Amino acid sequence: MNKYICKTCGVQYESSIDVPEQCLICTEGRQYVSSFGQSWTTLDNMQQSKEFINEILLEANGLYSIATKPNFAIGQTAYLIQTVGFNVLWDCIAFLDKQTIEYIDKLGGIQAVALSHPHYYSTQVEWAEAFDVPIYIHEDDKEWVMRPSDKIIFWSGDSLELHKGIVLHRLGGHFRGGAVLEWKDGNNQQGILLTGDVIRVVADRQWVSFMYSYPNFIPLPASKVQEISSLVKGLKFDRLYDAFHRIIKEDANESVQKSAKRYIEALSGTLFTT
After folding, report:
1. What is the CA radius of gyration of the chain?
2. Which fold has domain 4-268?
3. Which one, 2, 34, 170, 236, has the greatest CB density within 10 A?
4. Which long-range contacts (CB under 8 A, 24 or more apart) does 65-72 make?
5. Region class of 62: left (phi > 0), else alpha (psi between -120 and 50), else beta
C-alpha cells in the first residue's frame, strides 16, 4: 500500500495498492495534467532520492517561509507564523523530512495547520501527524480532500479565529472555500495577510490579481472580485505574502483595492481600448 503523490500538483492520496488512474485535482478545470502525462511518486521515494531539501527562511519577526528546493509540483511556499505558545503552518508543501521536523521543533513546533485552497493540500496529513495537530479547511472545499484524516477540521462561515489575532477569512473566488490568513500582530503590529493565490502578487510587487484558474488563464467575474476587495478592505494588514514568495511590503491593503478596481475596469472595457 502506498500513499501516492501527484507530481504535477503535489497532492497526496489515501493508501492504495495500485497507482491512481488520474489525479482528480489536476483533471479539474483550474489545474491541468502535465503534457508528459499523469505521473506519481511517494514521500518515501522523495526522501530516499536525496534530491530535495526544504529551505526555511526568516522573512520577518515571527514569520518563516518554507519552500522545497529544487521546486516540486506547483512550487508553492508555505509559511510558519511563530507566536508565544502557538505556531501556525499556513498552506503546505509535499516534501517533509526529519531535518525539517527538527528545525521547526526548535522554533516551537506547530500547533495548527491552515489551508488556503485544495491545490496546496499536498501532504498536509503527514505534517499534521508529525506534529500531532489539527488541519483547518473550509467546509466548502471538503470534496477536494484526497486523503481523509481525523486531523481535519472543516470550519464553516466567513471567518475563524485560530488564536488571538490570527484569523482565517473565507473569500472564495479561486475556490468556493478559498481562504486567507490575517495576522493582526505581524509586521510590528501593522498586520500581515497570507493569501496563497486566492490573491496573487504580480511581477512588479505593487499590484495583485485574482483568477479562477492561473494555468488556464480563466478570470473571475467582476462581481466576485468586487466582493473579495470589499471583504479584504476591513482587514488589518500593511504587508501581503502570496504562495510564490512574492511580497507587497507596505500599503498592501491599498494595493488590493486599486488592483481590484483595475481588474474590474479591464473586464468592463473601460480600462483600455483595443
Report:
1. 18
2. Metallo-beta-lactamase; Chain A (3.60.15)
3. 170
4. 65/241, 65/245, 66/93, 66/100, 67/93, 67/245, 68/93, 68/94, 68/95, 72/7, 72/10, 72/46
5. left
